[in-house]
Amino acid sequence: MSDSLFTKIIQRELDAEFVYEDDRVVAFHDIAPQAPVHILIVPRKQIPMLDDLNEEDEALMGHMVYVASKLARTLKLDHGYRLVMNCNHQGGQTVFHIHMHLLGGRQMQWPPG
Ligand code: AMP
Q1: What average pLDDT does the structure give for the chain?
Q2: Looking at residue 22, what is its pLDDT?
Q3: Residue 80: which of 60, 109, 41, 40 has the closest Cα?
Q4: Fewest CB within 10 angstroms: 6, 10, 12, 28, which?
Q5: What span, in angstroms and rounded, lies between the C-alpha atoms of 47 and 4?
Q6: pTM for this structure?
Q7: Over the stretch 41-79, which tens digit does the pLDDT of each residue have?
Q8: Pocket of ligand 1 contains residue 33 by CB under 6 Å
Q9: Considering only CA atoms, which of 10, 102, 99, 101 is closest in space to residue 48?
Q10: Vertex 54, ends 38 and 111: CA angle to 5°?
């Protein structure tokens, strides 16, 4: 598998504005923010999309949610926020290395477009 865009960011071959990292995930600002706060939580493991998850990835997915909730607290998103994971083309996925969007700082609408 060739390196994804996000693997290149994780390996510091491409620039990004990091806000968090640990041994399993990194988080950085989205280049085209859709809300006042728009951060991507990305596993170091390059998994193309949610369809590719294995049972062994279960804890990693939970860790991504936990990190997102910690970041939301740090960023004082006290009135709420949204976590989004897009899967494949119809789900709106454009970068094929799974990631979670943390969006906040404005009123969200439902249903999403
Ligand atoms: P998705 O459409 O769910 O696959 O989300 C991919 C996200 O990656 C989009 O919100 C893009 O704006 C964002 N993105 C693409 N390239 C970069 C980059 N170089 N640095 C940070 N975010 C990026």
Answers
A1: 98
A2: 98
A3: 109
A4: 12
A5: 10
A6: 0.98
A7: 999 999 999 999 999 999 999 999 999 999 999 999 999
A8: no
A9: 99
A10: 40
* C-alpha of residue 93 to centroid of ligand 1, in Å: 9
Closest residue to atom 23 of ligand 1, CA basis: 31
- Which residues 6+ apart lie within 8 Å of 52 measured at CB? 98
Report the distance separating Cα 105 and Cα 78, nearest Å: 9
* 101 is an active site residue: no
Cα–Cα distances in Å, from 58 out to 23, 33, 50, 104? 16, 28, 11, 25
Average pLDDT over residues 78-96: 98
Question: Which of 14, 91, 85, 87 lies closest to 52, judged by CA?
Answer: 87
Extract the tokens encoding 106.
């404005």
Closest-lying ligand 1 atom to the alpha carbon of residue 29:
21
- What domains can you pick out in the chain, each with its CATH number? 5-104 (3.30.428.10)
Closest to 92 measured CA to CA, from 60, 41, 49: 49
